[in-house]
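TASK: fixed-backbone design
INPUT:
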């Protein structure tokens, strides 16, 4: 079985410590258990690391420790990814005030990953936006579509219910 190659956006790392969102936190921790078990190959970009660097202590230290424990592959952020992110903003797929969200998606598309996981339903995990991200990417000559999902969708992708449903 081929492992999914998954870009883990900053919101997922953050929800591992979200005491105010126990359901998201539980799903996030279960997702990271799957990452540790090798069920998926994890990736981040410098954008994730820069966003984590802006967090206040002690959260920043906890996030950094989690990333060290998961050991995702660090993707480069080439000029092609910057150009694609700019296109997402220019075409109104992502608001100009949220360029990092566009950069996360562009990094995953340029690296030809399978899935981008995020808890950011407003600007990233959204059916209409996903269609627009992939359409803009195709127009920019990136033909491999990117699946955008929550950690829960990745977690339960291959499991069968006990009663076979």
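OUTPUT:
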């Amino acid at each position: 079985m081929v492992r999914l190659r998954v870009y883990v956006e900053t919101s997922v790392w953050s929800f591992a410590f979200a005491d105010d969102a126990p359901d998201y936190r539980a799903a996030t921790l279960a997702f990271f258990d799957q990452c540790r078990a090798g069920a998926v190959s994890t990736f981040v970009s410098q954008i994730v690391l820069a966003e984590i660097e802006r967090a206040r202590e002690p959260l920043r230290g906890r996030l950094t420790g989690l990333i060290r424990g998961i050991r995702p592959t660090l993707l480069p952020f080439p000029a092609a990814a910057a150009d694609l992110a700019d296109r997402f903003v220019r075409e109104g797929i992502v608001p100009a005030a949220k360029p990092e969200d566009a950069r996360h998606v562009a990094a995953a598309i340029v690296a030809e990953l399978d899935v981008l996981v995020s808890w950011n339903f407003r600007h990233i995990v959204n059916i209409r936006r996903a269609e627009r991200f992939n359409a803009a990417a195709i127009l920019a000559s990136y033909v491999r579509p990117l699946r955008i999902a929550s950690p829960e969708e990745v977690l339960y992708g291959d499991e069968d219910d006990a009663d076979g449903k």
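COMMENT: The chain has a mean pLDDT of 93.
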